[in-house]
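Why should sequence recovery work at all? Because a backbone constrains its sequence more than one might expect. Tight turns favour small or flexible residues, buried strands favour hydrophobic ones, and helices have their own preferences. The token representation captures these environments compactly. In the example below, the structure is given first.
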């Protein structure tokens, strides 16, 4: 998924950084931390974020908690105005994950990056008026 996201961003000439976190639950707070840090003059500022990850169902209820809470965290940040392309997969097994992640099949990483860029463009359009 990361390769698909990078390819989509590069195709549009977009600069990006890659930050790796331990799991899907850490993605929303990491985005929030990056956004907060961007308020300081020495820190990078980002127009948007692409969240990539995969939660595979296991034998316990943990799957539901991780998938629900990571999605809720991203949605909460989005409602507050942050632009996030959500590419966190929630799947039953590894085969489903690969089918969605491969660029030759689902390309969910590229899709999340394109969604982020579309939202950035929409935000700019809304700021100058829809007729622009």
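From this structural description, the recovered sequence reads:
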């Amino acid at each position: 998924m990361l390769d698909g996201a990078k390819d989509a961003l590069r195709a549009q000439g977009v600069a990006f950084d890659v930050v790796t976190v331990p799991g899907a639950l850490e993605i929303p707070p990491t985005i929030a931390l990056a956004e907060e840090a961007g308020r300081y003059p020495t820190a990078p500022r980002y127009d948007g974020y692409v969240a990539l990850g995969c939660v595979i169902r296991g034998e316990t209820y943990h799957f539901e908690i991780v998938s629900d809470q990571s999605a809720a965290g991203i949605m909460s940040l989005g409602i507050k105005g942050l632009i996030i392309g959500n590419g966190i997969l929630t799947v039953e097994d590894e085969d489903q994950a690969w089918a969605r992640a491969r660029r030759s099949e689902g390309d969910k990483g590229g899709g999340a990056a394109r969604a982020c860029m579309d939202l950035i463009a929409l935000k700019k359009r809304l700021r100058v008026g829809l007729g622009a």
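A few observations help interpret the result. The chain has one domain: 1-124.
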